């Protein structure tokens, strides 16, 4: 054997001491000398599993309790070692740990079935008791989390990663919108401990299926109110469990306001579609078309189960319920839209509807989004100098993602989103000079911060009415009801189907 191959076959422990990788006891010897080596820990644990299975086979053949006790002792050691290997960073140990865990449970069920007597002897009762104690100790060691911010009375859940329990709602930055699901917890079971256990158990199931995907699980009560949320951001991050133990009337009202708002947004898109075309679409995908028929980029998520899927059957498990119906000119369009489109939830209150509209106050450089006279959003804007922003009634005639995308950046002044008005010389658009917001500095267009423009774009459908006033406060009283809208109800991702690569826009910026 060449020196290079010989060297590759040796494992350098240190101080000139080597182990041969061909040695059948290599992993045992390495583990004896490096007890924190996760790979050695894994291989020793797998060898212990094979040894445990030999004891189990002997027990099945002889029914001698000695072999059963040896099996339980050895499989417990195997499980502990493989789990510890995973926790120390040996990712390949994860699936084997889960498999061993399941097989231990199934084996105990099988043993219980084989040994089920018509009556128990004193000796059998003692053995059962000892077995239960061993399994309880094993479960405590294997499954209990390593960190927790609050002390719980009991731990009935199983999970491999540390977690902490936090009373309150999660910061918006931690909320995961792409991979989330909702579980229902009856009011009678909505103690803090049971909520934590249910969230962790479900998060564990999702982790087993997709261990590399950040996930969150939302717990709601019988009235679809959020009572807890478990968030795992992936990799080595701890799980964060938020428990809404204090349900103030304001919090409940805010959730209901969010439902009213998101329902109004999707209903407004349907309303404008029917008003423009004279018929209902066969399904709501007609509202998510490419430019120039892009009423909405995507549907908003209802706030209780955080879904935006559309169904035609009232399953009440979240998203939106659409009921197709024929439309005629003599029908009340607002009433028909209310009937055709509802949240797919167990929510028994009436959700009023009037289509969204935009009002712009030139005197105070503000843009308002309203439903009837109820204000949903209020944004600062830049307007035209020398009173060049036109007053009167207009409407949104186009919606464009990344307007003038092909124009050099130093000449592209329209930001990331734009909504052209019925007067094609003007638009509401983002800006690459946010310092101008609040001033009268444009050639007549309405400028907004890009982030706020992206939210407005996601809410407002095509054909929405826009009315520009010289001084809005003289006409409509502007009052706040204390509602603080969250910033995660609408997606700000730009859909390339909504770009217009063939037009260079020349609005009166």
Quick summary:
By secondary structure, the chain is an alpha/beta fold.
Structural overview:
It is a single chain. 33% of the residues are buried. The strands form five sheets. The protein has an eight-stranded mixed sheet with strand order 13-12-11-20-15-16-17-19. Strands 3-7-6-5-4 form a five-stranded mixed sheet, with helices on one face. The protein is α/β, with parallel strands linked by helices and 509 residues long. Helix 7 (192-209) links the parallel strand 4 (180-184) and strand 5. The chain is 34% helix and 18% strand.
Task: Using brief descriptors, characterize the structure shown.
single chain; 509 residues; alpha/beta; eight-stranded mixed β-sheet; five-stranded mixed β-sheet; 10 helices; elongated; disordered N terminus
Q: What overall form do the CA principal axes indicate?
A: elongated
| DSSP, total strands | 20
* Topology order in helix (H) and strand (E) letters: HEEHHHHHEEHEEEHEEHEEEEEEEEEEHE
Low-confidence stretches: 1-6, 140-159, 246-250
- Assess the beta-strand content as a share of residues: 15-25%
How are strands sequenced across the largest beta sheet? 13-12-11-20-15-16-17-19
Report the end-to-end length measured between terminal Cα atoms: 78 Å
Radius of gyration: 32 Å
Question: Mean pLDDT score, rounded?
Answer: 82
> Helicity range of the residues?
25-40%
